[in-house]
Every structure is written in structure tokens, then in C-alpha cells.
Specification:
Layout (H helix, E strand, L loop, with lengths): L1 H9 L4 E4 L2 H4 L7 H4 L8 E3 L2 E3 L2 H14 L8 E6 L12 H16 L14 E3 L33
Parallel strand pairs: 1-4, 4-5
Antiparallel strand pairs: 2-3
Length: 159
């Protein structure tokens, strides 16, 4: 990993990160509001840092790992995040996908950054624009904001 981080740092390139709180969610140990990026109170304390949502915790984990190999100046771009709206367990719903993705957009539009990197906005891309009906059955077909016929699955408020 250190060779990759050195290359990114030397060329002033960001690290592209795909982070999905959906896959990390375990209802035995986590509050749903934390993974839906919906909590207004600190849920997880990591030293002097407090996290209200799992997405920022995931990003800051990557920042910490990069710092350990000399990547203090490498930025993270959240190249994929999303929530499936069907095809899987009970938490794969339109309601939860709408909540998660609207909150991801809200966090991306907020220039406050993460607890580890305050004051640095987090460039974020949602997965996916369209459902991918040619993928195997299950949640992978159900990440899109739109159906293949261009009808909206649910609304996301982009700034």
C-alpha cells in the first residue's frame, strides 16, 4: 500500500474509495441511524474524535491508514457509496435508500469535512444512476436512483 500512497502523494492525486455502510451494518452492534447517516448525536468515539455516521468513520479509517505510510497530504474522494432499495434483506428498502443517499448528498455538500479532516469537504459520488437489470438477481440490481425506463425510484435532493 505504501507504494501506491507514495505515488498518489508525489503526483497530488486523490485516493478513490468505495465505501458502503450498508455492507458493514450489523443490527446487533450498530444503530440504523448511524449507518443511514441520520444520527444527530455522536455514536462512536475514537479517542478525541466523535462520529455521528459510519461513512465519515470509514473515510477517516482510510485517512489513518494512509498517514501511517506517509500519505498525510493525500485526499480521499468517495468514488462510490449507496444503499440498495430492494433485492435483499429487510433493510434494503426504498425508504432507507432515500434516507441514506439524501444524507450522503447533504454530507458531501457540507464543507465541514470529517472529524479527522475538518474543514475539507468530501467529494462524493452516488452509486448508481440507473438500476442494472442485467446483473445477477439480488441487491446489485437495486442501487439505481432511476429505473432503466428513466422513471425515478425515489427522489434525491441535489444542491
Amino acid at each position: 500500500m505504501s507504494a501506491v500512497i507514495s505515488f498518489l502523494a508525489a503526483n497530488n492525486y486523490p485516493l478513490l474509495l468505495n465505501a458502503y455502510p450498508y455492507y458493514a451494518y450489523d443490527p446487533k452492534y450498530m444503530k440504523l441511524d448511524y449507518v443511514l447517516l441520520n444520527s444527530t448525536t455522536v455514536i462512536v468515539h475514537d479517542g478525541n474524535l466523535g462520529y455521528t455516521n459510519m461513512l465519515h468513520a470509514m473515510v477517516d479509517t482510510v485517512y489513518t491508514a494512509m498517514e501511517k505510510v506517509g500519505g498525510q497530504k493525500v485526499e480521499v474522494v468517495l468514488s462510490e457509496t449507496g444503499w440498495p432499495w430492494g433485492g435483499g434483506p429487510a433493510v434494503a428498502t426504498v425508504e432507507y435508500a432515500k434516507i441514506h443517499n439524501n444524507n450522503a448528498v447533504r454530507l458531501a455538500a457540507n464543507p465541514n469535512g470529517t472529524p479527522k479532516r475538518p474543514g475539507k469537504g468530501l467529494e462524493t459520488y452516488l452509486f448508481a444512476m440507473f438500476n442494472e437489470n442485467l446483473k445477477n438477481e439480488g441487491i446489485e440490481q437495486h442501487y439505481g436512483l432511476y429505473y432503466p425506463d428513466m422513471n425515478e425510484v425515489y427522489h434525491v435532493d441535489f444542491p
